[in-house]
Amino acid sequence: MVNGHLTICKIYKDGTKEIVLDKSNMITKGLGSSLIDILEGRGAVYHEDFVPYYFQVGTSSVDTLKFISDTSAYFYQLSSPLSWSEYGDDTDLILDERYRGFYASTVDDGLTYGELYGTSGALSAVVFSGTNQYFGEVPPTKISKVYLDSFEAVIVLDEKTANDKNISEIGLFSKNPRGFRGDSPLLIAYKSFTPVPKSSAFSLVMHWRIGFLGLTTNVDEVFGDGGGSVGDVPDDTLRIISGPLGDP
After folding, report:
1. Per the structure, how many domains does the chain have?
2. Is the model's pLDDT at 68 over the cut of 90?
3. What's the 3-state SS for the chain?
4. Which pTM was predicted?
């Protein structure tokens, strides 16, 4: 089973680190559809189009708890992603306007298509569509494959990014799994958490692992909030934090 784990730290100017989240996350149906495309030879022809390449952060959360269990991962966007201006004029992030991909289904009249949200695509007539939104790029140097069956991505909101925003959700997107002429990011993993007031006093560093990770001592409920101290984190996570996370 494919799992995900997200660790978020505040990194202060003096080097102090504070863990604000150390939880498993939700793998969405976007990743599943991409894996099927790979196995059946559909979609993009280049493997790099399937890897995590874009991300968004937001200030609300997707209410997946109201879905029934077998459709809870059928959504393709954040609840309230930041706009271009909300990331800040001086941010070091590379921001792009891209055609966010999603699966849609007919509604009411059978002719109008709407974005699937908590509805199983297997039960609907679906088409692939999209809408323009802003995304941050995950630098290639911040994506690694440290296991044979998983990958890691490091996302950094530096001291000049998203200040005065209460960050409470994050989504990871593959680059262009449908192989369109221009990139059409597709949501593959999502996590909401207790809002973190972002300020210029620290960088917010997010370390995301996705793959066949297996169970660890801190596997938790997908929908749980973050929090905790270094003493609550297993040794392997501390090792990771002292490496890539300490060197954004």
Report:
1. 1
2. no
3. CCEEEEEEEEEECCCCEEEEEEEECEECHHHHHHHHHHHHCCCCCCHHHHCEEEEEEECCCCCHHHCCHHHCCCCCCCCCECCCHHHCCCCCCCEEEEEEEEEEEEECCCCEEEECCCCCHHHCCEEEEEEEEEEEECCHHHEEEEECCEEEEEEEECCCCCCCCEEEEEEEEECCCCCCCCCCCEEEEEEEEEEEECCCCEEEEEEEEEECCCCCCCCCCCCCCCCCCHHHCCHHHHHHHHCHHHCC
4. 0.77
Bridge partners, residue 137, by sequence? 54
Q: Pull the structure tokens for residue 212.
A: 């066949």
The domain in which residue 44 lies consists of 3-246
pLDDT at residue 17, rounded to an integer: 96
219: pLDDT strictly greater than 90: no
CB contact at 8 A, 8 and 21: yes
Cα–Cα nearest to 223, from 87, 78, 65: 65
**What separation in angstroms does the CA of 156 have from each of 84, 182, 186?**
16, 25, 20
pLDDT at 42 > cutoff 70: yes
> d(Cα 209, Cα 7) in Å, to the nearest integer?
9
Mean pLDDT, residues 172-183 taken together: 89
Interatomic CA distance for residues 107 and 125, integer angstroms = 10
